[in-house]
Structures are given as C-alpha cells and as structure tokens.
Amino acid sequence: MVFWSGMKPVPVLLGPAAAVVLAMLPAPAHAQARAKADVACKQAAGPLQYDCVVKLNDARSNAPLTGVSLSIGADMPSMPGMHNLRPAKAVEDAEKGTYRARLVLDMHGEWALQLNLSGPVRDRVVKLLRFEGAEVTEPKPGERTRHRH
Ligand SMILES: [Cu+2]
Asked: How many angstroms does the Cα of residue 111 sit away from the middle of ligand 1?
C-alpha cells in the first residue's frame, strides 16, 4: 500500500488493526463544514448586477442559520486574482436562514462565490456559478469555460 504525502510516495505496511485505526481518523476538514449554502442569483438593474438569495443551514441538523454575518466575495477560477471583487455584505431576511446581497461583477462567466460566515457560525463556503446575462446556472463538474474579454 502506498500513501501520497505531497509529491513523495510513502510506503506503509498495514495489517487489519491499522486499517481499523485509519477508519477512525477524523474526516478531512471540508467534511466538518458547519454550514451549507444554497445560492440563487437573478440579474438586477445592470447587466453585471445580480441579486442573490443565500440560504444557510446547519450542515448536520439542517436548521436555518440565523444571526450570521455574511459577506460574499467573488473570483474567477479561470483567471485567479484578476477579478477579485470587494466582498458584498449580505442582509438578513425576515425568513429564517435567508440572506440577500447584490453582486456587481466585472464580466460574465464562471465565478467562485466565497461565502464568509462570521458571528455565531464561522465558516467559508465556496459556490461556483456561471453568470451569462439573465442566465445564472451551476456549472457541471469538470466543465471548463472559455475566458474571453
Ligand atoms: Cu478575466
């Protein structure tokens, strides 16, 4: 059996006892996320303005997360660092666990929205969305988008 540690393969001999111990190790950090998020965006007044509704729920109990301070940053995975927008502050809605924010992008295409939660729940959830005019869709896994200015 070979474990990959960075770029170097590390051979490890495993008996049945070791396999049991490995199964009991904590899950990777992303599996411990406290929040899960649903994001739906609609084009607003301008062609690059989008009004987004974010629903935050507890990852385990599924209960709506209220009283969270939520800011939404955005970057383009196909051009990292070039379209880093100033995070937008979301406003909590009367409906529990629902937050609203207006995003002003600087071009259409695929964006990674970073939902930064602070206050009672601290977490960061990243959501990929493709913004093409009035169409806002979730990119399919492995799908690549052209990046054209
Ligand atoms: Cu670009």
From this structure: 10
78 C-beta neighbours (distance < 10 Å), count: 16
Extract the tokens encoding 113: 């929205």
Summarised one tens digit per residue, pLDDT across range 82-132 is: 998 999 999 999 999 999 999 999 999 999 999 999 999 999 999 999 999
Strand, coil or helix: 30: helix
29-137 belongs to CATH 2.60.40.10 = yes
* Closest-CA residue to 58 (of 47, 67, 71, 46): 67
Distance between CA 41 and CA 134 in Å, rounded?
A: 9
CA of 132 to the centre of ligand 1 (A): 14
* Number of neighbouring beta carbons within 10 Å of residue 53: 16
